[in-house]
Structure formats: structure tokens, C-alpha cells
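Hey, quick one: can you model this chain's 3D structure?
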Amino acid sequence: MSDTDFLPAFPEDWEPTRATLHAYAHGVGAVPRTLAEPHPKWWHASLKVTADGLVTEPVAVPEGGTLRFRMDFTAHTVVLETEQGAGASFDMTAGRTGTEFADDLIAAAGRLGVEGEFDRSKFENDEDRSYDPAAAAAFWTAISNVAGLMETHKAAVGGDTSPVQVWPHGFDLSFEWFGTRVETYEEEGESVDYPSQLNFGFYPQGDAYFYSNPWPFEGEKLTEIELPHGAVWHTEGWEGTMLPYAEVAGDSDAEAKVAAYARAVFDAASPTLTG
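Sure thing. Here's the predicted structure for all 275 residues.
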């Protein structure tokens, strides 16, 4: 891989493939969202980045062992895997609707005795689907390289962090750093404490971008700080920062520039999230 391939430019007609992957990710996440060991921050519902694709958390099989689903961007399939190895395989290029694809995955889990009441609103989508393997391969190159960059950034900032994970809901890749500051809110007559946090993520839809957003957002202390490499403070609709993917795609220094952006936001925002 050359330096310019670290963040490849997406094809102009990337969106139909992205929308298909997004719809299928909802289906891939349906079984673990309901039946994996629950995590209070819903990390059990996310997909994790491995060398072989995006994988779900394991789900117990009644007769012993576990199953998981893996989105394979080399073979362009979703694979059901158990401790015995790969089992059923589902072709992402076949044009199945999101509903049909999810139903196929749920049925495959059911044949292993894994059954539940699934929230169908999370995956039902009957739009026609198209899939370009070259576009999907570009996405996988980007997402796997960015995941590695995030792991490096996580190690550098230290402290309490979440896994690097893809969220089926928004189909974005991110992780969170948790500060020590706590904000208390009244919810339904009870006081609820929320820890401060700073995320770092990549959103591939439309004009793709990286983001890093502190919460709480103390704009008066932050927005005058200059960010590197075309990154900007964003305050309309949502509050945080963004670095357009187009600013770094195909750039031989893309890895260093995205890392510098992430570090600059952390250095600016983390002092407001402690204490």
C-alpha cells in the first residue's frame, strides 16, 4: 500500500454502496443487539474492526459455544461464525433489501437455536439495494486504516476510553475518551450524573468527514483555537469539530494530518472535561 492509499478517495457513485452497507449493518447487528451480553453503554450492539472485517459481539448458542456475524469486504459476504469455523454465508452483492438480508441472518441464527424478539424497526427497509465491490473495498481500506489510527490515538491519550467501534445506527466509526468532570441533570424527577467525554470518529455519508466533539462543549473557551489541516469548529446543528475527508483523501501525509487534528482537539478540549 502506498502512502496515498491510506485514505483512498471514494468513487463519485459511492453513496448507493454506502447505503447498502448501512442497511446490512443494521441486520448484522440485530441478533447481538437483543441477545449478546448487554453493556450499559450499548457497546454490545456495535461492530468491532478486525483484520478480517467488521464483527459482532458473540451470542450464546443453546447447545454450547457462541456465534457471531462478520462483514467480509474481501469476499463481499456476511458470514455466520461459530467456534467450529465459518458457517452460513450471505452475498452482499445480490441486491437483497435490508429487510430480506436481516431476515436471512436471523433465520440462520434460529437454525442454531438462537431466537428472540427483535426490534424490527431497527432493520426493516425495503428499498432496492446495489453494491459495487470496488467502492466497498475502498471503504474497507479507509475504515481499517482509520481504526488503526484511532487505536494509536487512544494509547497516546490514555485514561478511560471506549472500544473503537462501528455503530450500525449512524454507520460511523468512533471511540470515546471519558473525562473526570461530571454533569448532573434532572430526568423524570431524578438526578442523573453524566461523565464528560470527547469522541473521535469518521462519518462516511455524503461529504464524508472526521469529527471530534467534546461534551460539554464550552465554545467560548474553544472556538478561537486554530485547528490544523482544514479542520474547523462546528456550532450549527451540532457542536464540535470536523475535518472534511476530501481534505486528506489521497494525501501522502493523510495519516499524520488526521492524527494531528485528533491530538489538537484533545489538547484543546480535555482541560475543560476534567475536575
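One thing worth noting: The longest helix spans residues 133-157.
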